[in-house]
Design a protein that fits this description.
Shape: globular
Number of strands: 11
Radius of gyration: 23 Å
Low-confidence stretches: 1-12, 177-195
Number of helices: 12
Helix content: 25-40%
Strand order of the largest sheet: 6-7-8-9-10-11
Strand content: 25-35%
Distance between the termini: 26 Å
Order of helices and strands: EEEEEHHHHHHHHHHEEEEEHEH
C-alpha cells in the first residue's frame, strides 16, 4: 500500500514527550476503534485519538512521519503493518524513508519500531560511525551494540542528559575526550572523597545503601569507587558534561532499585569497570535480589553471570559459549564456595550453562521497563 493511499487528520500528541523534528519517523499501535474513522492509538507510551480516513483494525501497527507541530501535531500515515519483521519488510520501509538497507541500519530501524522510539536519520549515520571505529574483538553484532542507545531512548528518555548517545558511549567505553583520564589516579587520589558539588547529590543518594544489607554495602562501595577513580583529583572530570550525565543516571538507578525495578549501575571491582544489573524481588513472601553482570575474559571471551540472593543464601549460574567451559567452573567451585562463605553466606549454589545471549542485561531491562510495540528480538 503506497503512502499516497493513506492520509490522516492532525492528532493530539505531546511535544514535551516527543521532541519531534520534521521528517522524524515513529510507529504506533491501534488499540481500539472509538467511532467512525476515530481510533485510540499508543505512540511511544502515550495514548492519543487519531482521526483517519483509512479503515484500521485493532492491533495494527502504523508507521508515521512527523510533518508539522503547530498549531497541532500533524502525523502523516505512511504504512500499516500487522507485525514487525526483519528481512524484506524492513528493507521496503527503509527505502520509503530514504534509509540505507545495510544490516546496521535495518537493526536500528527495527528496534526503533519495536520500542516506539522516534527514528532520526542523522542518528543512524552517527551510530554507525561509532560502531565502525569501536575497537573491540571479537566484534559484537550491530543489534547488541545499539541496545544501550535504546535503553536510554526508551527507559530513560525523561532524564535531562546532554546527548542521545551518552549511555552507549559509557557502556562500551566510548567516552568523550573530556571524560577520559589523562593518567591513572594515585592511590591517595582514589581514596579521597571528591569535594566537587557534582558529587553531593550522588553521595546523599548512596548513603542509605551503606546502612543496608551485605549486598547494599557492596553496591555502595563499588559505585562510589567507580566515580572516585574516574573523577577524583581531576577538574576536567568534575566539570565534564559526560559525568554530570552519569550522576543523573545513577541517581535514577538508586530510585529504581529501591522501588523494586530493574536498575543498572556502573561499578568498579578489582580495577575492572563494568555494569551491574539488579532488582529487588519478593516471591512467595521471601525477599531477595536478582542480579546479572558480564565479564570479559582473555581465554573464555565473555562470561555472563546471573544470580539471586535470599538472606544468607546465594545462587550463581555461569554462562559461556565454549563447550568445555563447564569444566573450568567445576574446577573452581570449591574455592569459590569457600570465599563466599567466608564473607557471610551460609548456602552457596553454583551451576553453569553452555550458551550465551549477548546483551542479556540490557534486553532484560528493556522488556521489564517498556511497553514494547513488539517484543525485543
Amino acid at each position: 500500500m503506497g503512502p499516497a493511499e493513506i492520509t490522516n487528520q492532525p492528532t493530539r500528541v505531546s511535544l514535551e514527550q516527543f521532541p519531534l523534528r520534521k521528517g522524524d519517523v515513529l510507529v504506533g499501535r491501534v488499540l481500539q476503534r472509538k467511532g467512525p474513522f476515530r481510533y485510540l492509538v499508543r505512540i511511544g507510551g502515550q495514548l492519543t485519538e487519531v482521526n483517519s480516513r483509512l479503515e484500521l483494525s485493532d492491533g495494527q501497527l502504523l508507521v508515521l512521519e512527523f510533518k508539522e507541530g503547530s498549531p497541532r501535531i500533524h502525523l502523516k500515515l505512511i504504512s500499516t503493518l500487522q507485525h514487525l519483521q526483519t528481512g524484506s519488510q524492513m528493507k521496503q520501509l527503509a527505502r520509503k524513508f530514504g534509509f540505507p538497507t545495510d544490516a546496521f541500519s535495518l537493526d536500528f530501524l527495527r528496534l526503533s519500531f519495536q520500542l516506539g522510539v522516534v527514528v532520526r536519520r542523522e542518528y543512524v549515520k552517527q551510530l554507525k560511525s561509532l560502531y565502525h571505529r569501536w575497537d573491540r574483538h571479537p566484534k559484537i553484532s550491530a543489534e547488541v551494540f545499539l541496545l544501550p542507545y535504546f535503553v536510554q531512548s526508551s527507559v530513560f528518555s525523561h532524564l535531562a542528559v546532554t546527548e542521545p548517545f551518552f549511555l552507549l558511549k559509557w557502556y562500551w567505553g566510548l567516552k568523550d575526550a573530556d571524560a577520559r583520564a589523562s593518567r591513572q589516579p594515585s592511590d591517595a587520589e582514589a581514596s579521597e572523597e571528591p569535594a566537587s558539588s557534582l558529587f553531593e547529590s550522588l553521595w546523599e543518594g548512596l548513603q542509605p545503601l551503606q546502612k543496608g544489607s551485605l549486598f547494599d554495602r557492596f553496591l555502595h562501595s563499588a559505585v562510589w569507587r567507580h566515580f572516585r577513580i574516574h573523577c577524583s583529583g581531576r577538574e576536567r572530570c568534575r566539570t565534564s558534561s559526560f559525568y554530570q550525565d552519569g550522576m543523573r543516571f545513577v541517581e535514577e538507578q538508586i530510585v529504581r532499585y529501591r522501588t523494586g525495578r530493574w536498575a543498572m549501575f556502573p561499578v568498579e571491582v578489582n580495577q575492572e569497570s563494568g555494569f551491574l544489573f539488579l532488582k529487588q524481588s519478593n516471591t512467595a513472601g521471601s525477599s531477595g535480589i536478582r542480579f546479572y553482570f558480564e565479564v570479559d575474559h582473555p581465554v573464555w571471551q565473555e562470561i555472563q553471570v546471573r544470580g539471586e540472593l535470599k538472606g544468607t543464601e546465594i545462587s550463581l549460574v555461569f554462562y559461556n559459549g565454549h563447550q568445555v567451559f563447564g569444566r573450568e567452573v567445576d574446577s573452581h567451585k570449591i574455592n569459590l564456595k569457600e570465599k563466599l562463605m567466608r564473607i557471610g553466606f551460609q548456602r552457596v549454589n553454583l551451576s553453569h550453562i553452555t550458551g550465551i545471549r549477548m546483551g542479556q542485561g540490557l534486553r532484560q531491562l528493556l522488556n521489564y521497563s517498556v511497553s514494547t510495540v513488539d517484543k525485543v528480538a
